[in-house]
Write a structure and sequence with these properties.
Transcription Regulator spoIIAA, six-stranded parallel β-sheet, binds iron/sulfur cluster, alpha/beta, about 40% helix, Rossmann fold, 4 domains, 19 strands, about 450 residues
Length: about 450
C-alpha cells in the first residue's frame, strides 16, 4: 500500500471509531459520464470501509454526496436543484453531512457560488481527490469545520482504492484520465487535467481480479481511450488483455476520431473478445464547424474512418455523439451534419444541444445560436436518427446475436434483458438463472430502443 493510502487508512479507522456503536448511512447521487460512475463506486467503497452502509431509498441518510458533472449546463442546474431540496432535509436532520465532489466543483467560480448561496454544503472537493475523503470527513466530524478543497493539486494516479461495484457481471476499468485536446466547447481538460495513463500491469491485474470475481465484461474507460500511452499503446493493450486475461468481453469508450489508427481497427476486428462496436463522437458534420471546435478532422476524414471500420469489422455497431447549435453553425453547416448521419447510418446517436461552458473559447463567441433555432435543428436531427435506428434494428430481425444477460427487464419482471456485441438492448423470455451468461438469441423484432428475441 502506498503512503497516501496508508495515511487514509488511519483516517478511515478514526471515522470508524468516531461513529462506533451507531450504524450510519450514506447516499451517493452521480451526475454525468461513466468515469464519474466509476469514481462513485470508489467513493462507495471508501464509505463502506469507514463503516457506513448505503441508505435505503426512503430513509434520510447521514451523508449525502453528489458526484457532479459540468460538461453540460443542465447537469449543473440539476445539482443546484437537488442541493436546494437538501436544505429542507438538513433542517429536519441537522447532523446530516452534505458532500459535493467531482468536475463541477473544480470549475472556476463554483465554490464561491456554493459558499454564498448553498451554505448547507459541508465538504466540497474536486476531481482527483476522492482518496482523501476519509481525511476530509474525519476533520469535519471531529471539528465541525467545513472542508473545501478544489484547488488543482497533483495528477497522481492512486491505485488500490476500495471499490463497491454496481454490477457483478460488468465492470468499468479506467485506463487513462484527463484530456489534452481542448475542444473549444469542452471544460474537461480544465477540470480533469492533462492525460495520464495507468500502467499496463495495473490494468491487467485489475481485469484478472475481476475475472476471478465472476465479471464477464469490462469497459475500458478514458476521455480518449485511444490516446492511451503507457508501456504499450491502446491497440497493443487490447492484444495483451486478450492474451493475459480470461475476460469474455471487452468494450471501450470514448474514442477520438483523430486517434483512430488502422492498427486499432484491425485489433478490434481480430480480437474476438473485443465487441464489434465503435462509439466515435462526430460532434458536427461541417468541416468548418469541426475546425472551430478544434476537433482536428474533417467531414471527409470522419466518413473515411467509418467506412474503413464497416469494411474491416464484420457487423460493426456504430454510435456517435452530436452537438447541435455550436456558435456560428449555419443552416448549411447543419445540413452537413444531417448528410453525414445519413451517410454513416449510425445504430445510435447521443444528441446534445450546445450550451456555453465557462472558461471555454466557444463560450466567448458572440455568434451564439438562438434557443429556437437549436431546438428546431435538434428535432430534425432526432427524427432522422430515430428512423435510421429503427431501420437498422429491423434489419437485425432473423440474426442470431450473442447476448450477455444482465438481469430482469425494468418494465417486465418476466423478461430478461441484456446487450449484444453492438451494444443494442435485447429483451427475451428466459430463466433468471441465465443472468451473467452469454447466450445466443434470435432477433424476432427490431424496435427503436431495443430488440426483441428468443433464446436459440
Ligand atoms: S476530446 Fe474534446 S470533447 Fe473529449 S474530453 Fe477532450 S476536450 Fe472534451
Amino acid at each position: 500500500m502506498n503512503e497516501t493510502l496508508l495515511q487514509q487508512q488511519i483516517y478511515t479507522d478514526k471515522v470508524k471509531n468516531f461513529t462506533l456503536g451507531q450504524q450510519k448511512t450514506y447516499k451517493i447521487q452521480t451526475f454525468g459520464c461513466q468515469m464519474n460512475e466509476n469514481d462513485s463506486e470508489k467513493i462507495a467503497g471508501l464509505f463502506e470501509e469507514m463503516g457506513y452502509l448505503e441508505s435505503s431509498d426512503n430513509a434520510i441518510p447521514d451523508i449525502v454526496l453528489f458526484n457532479t458533472c459540468c460538461v453540460r449546463e443542465n447537469a449543473e442546474q440539476k445539482v443546484f436543484g437537488h442541493l436546494g431540496v437538501l436544505k429542507k432535509q438538513k433542517e429536519q436532520k441537522s447532523d446530516m453531512v452534505i458532500i459535493l465532489s467531482g468536475c463541477m466543483m473544480q470549475q472556476a467560480g463554483t465554490l464561491d457560488q456554493i459558499k454564498k448561496s448553498y451554505r448547507h454544503a459541508d465538504i466540497v472537493y474536486g476531481t482527483n481527490k476522492s482518496h482523501l475523503l476519509p481525511l476530509y470527513l474525519y476533520t469535519y466530524l471531529s471539528t465541525g469545520d467545513k472542508q473545501f478543497f478544489t484547488e488543482e493539486t497533483g495528477q497522481e494516479i492512486i491505485e488500490g482504492l476500495p471499490i463497491k461495484r454496481e454490477s457483478s457481471i460488468k465492470a468499468y476499468v479506467p485506463i487513462m484520465f484527463g484530456c489534452n485536446n481542448y475542444c473549444s466547447y469542452c471544460v474537461v481538460p480544465y477540470v480533469r487535467g492533462r492525460e495520464r495513463s495507468r500502467s499496463t500491469h495495473d490494468i491487467i491485474n485489475e481485469i484478472n481480479y475481476l475475472v476471478n470475481q465472476g465479471v464477464k465484461e469490462v469497459t475500458l474507460l478514458g476521455q480518449n481511450v485511444n490516446s492511451y500511452n503507457s508501456e504499450v499503446d491502446f491497440a497493443d493493450l487490447l492484444y495483451l488483455i486478450d492474451k493475459l486475461c480470461d475476460i469474455k468481453r471487452i468494450r471501450f469508450m470514448t474514442s477520438h476520431p483523430k486517434d483512430i489508427s488502422l492498427k486499432l481497427i484491425k485489433a478490434i476486428s481480430e480480437i474476438d473478445k473485443v465487441c464489434n462496436h465503435l462509439h466515435l463522437p462526430m460532434q458536427a458534420g461541417s468541416t468548418k464547424v469541426l475546425r472551430e471546435m478544434n476537433r482536428k478532422y474533417s467531414k471527409e476524414q470522419y466518413i473515411d474512418i467509418i467506412n474503413n471500420a464497416k469494411k474491416t469489422i464484420p457487423n460493426v455497431g456504430l454510435s456517435t455523439d452530436i452537438i447541435v447549435g455550436f456558435p456560428g453553425e449555419s443552416d448549411i453547416d447543419f445540413d452537413d451534419t444531417l448528410e453525414v448521419i445519413s451517410t454513416c447510418q449510425f445504430d445510435f446517436a447521443y444528441t446534445f444541444l450546445y450550451s456555453k461552458r465557462r472558461g471555454t473559447k466557444a463560450a466567448l463567441r458572440d455568434d451564439q445560436i438562438s434557443k429556437e433555432d437549436k431546438s428546431i435543428r435538434f428535432n430534425k436531427l432526432v427524427t432522422l436518427q430515430n428512423s435510421i435506428t429503427l431501420q437498422k434494428n429491423i434489419s437485425c430481425e432473423g440474426n442470431i446475436e450473442k447476448v450477455l444477460v444482465e438481469g430482469l427487464s425494468k418494465t417486465n419482471k418476466a423478461v430478461l434483458t441484456g446487450r449484444d456485441e453492438a451494444n443494442k438492448i435485447v429483451n427475451f423470455i428466459g430463466d433468471k438463472q441465465l443472468i451473467g451468461q452469454i447466450i445466443n438469441v434470435k432477433i424476432i423484432k427490431g424496435k427503436t430502443w431495443h430488440l426483441e428475441g428468443e433464446i436459440v
